[in-house]
Design brief:
Elements lengths: L7 H39 L4 H10 L12
Length: 72
Amino acid sequence: MMVLGIDPIQRLVVPRVLACMLVAVFLNGMVSVVGVAGGYVFNVILQDGTPGAYLARLHRARPACRTCGSAC
């Protein structure tokens, strides 16, 4: 490719790196959705929980604080 005057890094590597970054974002979203759906199925069907209680608890859930580790 160098003989043709084309940079092989620009032509071969950069598109693959960009594609990997895009696919990683979509995979992360898909895994999150599947995890929440799996938790719903486990709670509602296997443990006989109520759908409303699961969704209410999911709505109230907050990530832990990065500085102190508690739900600030």
